[in-house]
Amino acid sequence: MECASNPVNVDKFLILPISEGSRTVTEVLSREGSFRILEVLSEDLLSVREISRKTGLPFVDAEAKVMALMESDLVEIKSRSSGLEGKEDIYGPAKRFVAFSSEDKSMVV
């Protein structure tokens, strides 16, 4: 297959150089519970309260992990809902794949 006939949307990729700059994303992903949050968000858009309930993580831990995943461009706010407690952010996975590249971007893994 030729790449020209099957273009790749580069906006769907989070390409990080293998260097100190990629350390934040790898640290966030290595934290206990982060992958579980991404798993539940891949099934449905959820509030932090719902993420906490579905993952079994304490609310404070779920909230901190969601914020870290947002800072790493792996999770994003999808909408806001109004509930009994007021407005609540609803989160979902960013539609991206993580790829690591050499610093000169000549090799992607």
What does this structure look like?
This protein has 4 helices and 4 strands. The protein has 109 residues and is α+β, with helices and mostly antiparallel strands. The strands form 2 sheets. Strands 1-4 form a two-stranded parallel sheet. A two-stranded antiparallel ribbon has the order 2-3. A hairpin with a 2-residue loop joins strand 2 and strand 3 (86-93). The chain starts with 12 loop residues before the first strand and ends in an 8-residue tail after the last strand. This is Transcriptional regulator. It comes from Methanococcoides methylutens. InterPro entries: WH-like_DNA-bd_sf.
Keywords:
alpha+beta; Arc Repressor Mutant, subunit A; 109 residues; two-stranded parallel sheet; 4 helices; two-stranded antiparallel sheet; 4 strands
Helix percent reads: 25-40%
Q: What's the main sheet like?
A: 2 strands, parallel
| CATH architecture classification name of one domain | Orthogonal Bundle
Distance between the termini: 20 Å
Task: Could you tell me the CATH topology label of one domain.
Answer: Arc Repressor Mutant, subunit A
Q: Count of helical segments? A: 4
Quaternary structure type: single chain
Shape: globular
Rg for CA atoms: 16 Å
Classified in CATH, the superfamily of one domain is Winged helix-like DNA-binding domain superfamily/Winged helix DNA-binding domain
Mean pLDDT: 76
List SSEs in N-to-C order: EHHHHEEE
Strand order in the sheet with the most strands: 1-4
The structural class is alpha+beta
Count the strands? 4
What's the level 1 CATH class of one domain? Mainly Alpha
Low-confidence stretches: 1-8
Proportion of residues in β-strands: 15-25%
Protein name: Transcriptional regulator
Organism: Methanococcoides methylutens
InterPro entries: WH-like_DNA-bd_sf
